[in-house]
Amino acid sequence: MQLIAMITMLIDHIGYIFFPQEMAWRYVGRIAFPIYCYGLVQGHLHTTSRSKYLLRLLLIAIISQLPYNLAINPEGLNVVITLLLAAVILAVLDRLPNPWLGLPIIAVASVLMDYFPVDYGAYGLLLVLIFRYTKSYAMVLAHLALNILYLFYNGWLIQMASIVPTIIIAWGPAFWQRLEKHRIPRWVWWSFYPAHLLVLAIVKIY
User: Fold this and answer.
1) What is the per-residue pLDDT across 142-178, written as a single tens digit (0 to 9) for each?
2) How far apart are CA 28 and CA 45, in angstroms?
3) Cα(52)–Cα(184) distance, rounded to whole angstroms?
4) What is the pTM of this model?
5) From CA 8, how far away is CA 148, in angstroms rounded?
6) Rounded CA gap, 142 and 120, in Å?
7) How far is the C-alpha of 78 from the C-alpha of 198, rounded, in Å?
8) Rounded to an integer, what distance in angstroms lies between the CA atom of residue 131 and that of residue 190?
9) Is 75 exposed, middle or buried (0-12, 13-18, 19+ CB in 10 A)?
10) Which one of 18, 47, 143, 155 has the minimum C-beta count within 10 Å?
11) DSSP assignments along 169-192, one per residue
């Protein structure tokens, strides 16, 4: 699972930077983000220390920001910031007697994430919440509804391809569990995002 996310993200970013007119790269890249969102939820549920987990995300977000600006978007905020904010929201919701009481918090966070140049914006937060609070058919339908909403809201036709990993997660759990058994070293998983952005930024500049 981790290797698939890393490879498809690399393909996406290579296409975005060097082959912007060839959309096949970007469609393959849509596989990556749902896997990272799903991984974030699993980390939230199973980490032994949420404070350390949030701190690691913050550190990676800070390290990734300059390479992200150089390689992808000079004015934007990288996707780890999106995941960090989503993780903070999950932690807040867990402290509430009922997650539905957190709807005002989710609404405010969504508006702010769409207002500021955070990668994926509110879409990222909402997808994380889908993975946290839905299962099976409901997960697929909720993700599809989110994609349709953003198709009309932002014209994100390409984002429809991101439903593929969600279908596998929801309807092929045995296959997905086999993928999860083949895990890569933790330091590779945590360092890949800033490292590959730095390499791409250097290639782009020179």
Assistant:
1) 999 999 999 998 899 999 999 999 998 888 766 666 6
2) 28
3) 20
4) 0.93
5) 22
6) 17
7) 13
8) 21
9) exposed
10) 155
11) HHH-HHHHHHHHHSPPPHHHHHHH
